[in-house]
Amino acid sequence: MTGERILVVDDDKLNLTLISDILKVEGYEVYPFFNGSSILEKTYLIKPSAILLDIILPDIDGFEICKMLKEDIYTKDIPIIMITGRTHSSDVKKALELGAFDYIKKPIDEVEVAARVKSVLRYNEYQEKLKAMAIKDGLTGLYNHTFLIEILEKEIKKHEKKVSSISFAMIDIDYFKKVNDAYGHLFGDKVLKGLSDMLLKSVPNSDIVGRYGGEEFGIIFTHESKGNLEKLCETLRKNVQDAEFETDGTKVKITISIGACFRENTKGLKSDEIIRKADEALYKAKSSGRNKIEIV
Predict the structure, then answer these.
(1) What's the pLDDT score for residue 190?
(2) Among 3, 65, 8, which residue's Cα sits nearest to residue 38?
(3) Is 97 a catalytic residue?
(4) CATH code, domain carrying 265
(5) Residue 85 burial (10 A CB sphere; 0-12, 13-18, 19+)
(6) Are the C-beta atoms of 283 and 259 separated by less than 8 Å?
(7) 233 with 108, same domain?
(8) 165 lies in some domain
(9) Number of structural domains, the chain?
(10) Which of 110, 152, 169, 245 is the residue whose CA sits 20 to 30 A from 218?
(11) pLDDT for 120-155, tens place per residue?
């Protein structure tokens, strides 16, 4: 059993049931829907490995859904297989140009559905490995500096349309050089990895964590009020302060300083501006004694 999640959208109940049954027999978790309403939100929630999408739908057609999914930073890499009863090659051409990976023609053939889904998942697994190498930090597994900034820029544009808040926090390990000098770089790497795991566990699922560089980390917070941002940063600071890292029987404690920039309205905001403000806040936290948070 594979356990891969497959989202299927088709307004024909017979086709939807048939495709769902075929995929379930293959060991996939299937999420069937009769229409395309709120499909982006459903995709966020389900996090499917692939999407089978009918072109003809009653509320919004498959072309529009495909375009919407491919334009969103969180869903653009999910492979889409279009389902079509049309015989015009122009429809298939349009689907592929919009970013669809493959297509299945009606009437549904059991062997074809299973084979095409298996093929797209195999290809996507390979692509995900390549992507991870390009966007992830090798030591911590977090997003690297380049991709973190790319996400921040896209989030700013995305939230500009929604008129909602966005924040960027910079985290720095206090006196990290002393840790490396006293216990060695291997232990320093262990601290960096351990802190990365703590950061991931301490922030909401919708927020993004990356390694900014060296012993500095960055977090993109979305939809948080300034008060809630302060609580999240303080909880993180305290969790790190209370944690222990062990080497050769010696328990070592570390602390972090956090500088964050909160913006309620992202209209006209630039990524370098919010980063600079967060960096200034971090400098203030460190210069005023460290193991502190500063929010501007």
Answers:
(1) 95
(2) 65
(3) no
(4) 3.30.70.270
(5) middle
(6) yes
(7) no
(8) yes
(9) 2
(10) 245
(11) 999 888 888 888 788 999 999 999 999 999 999 988
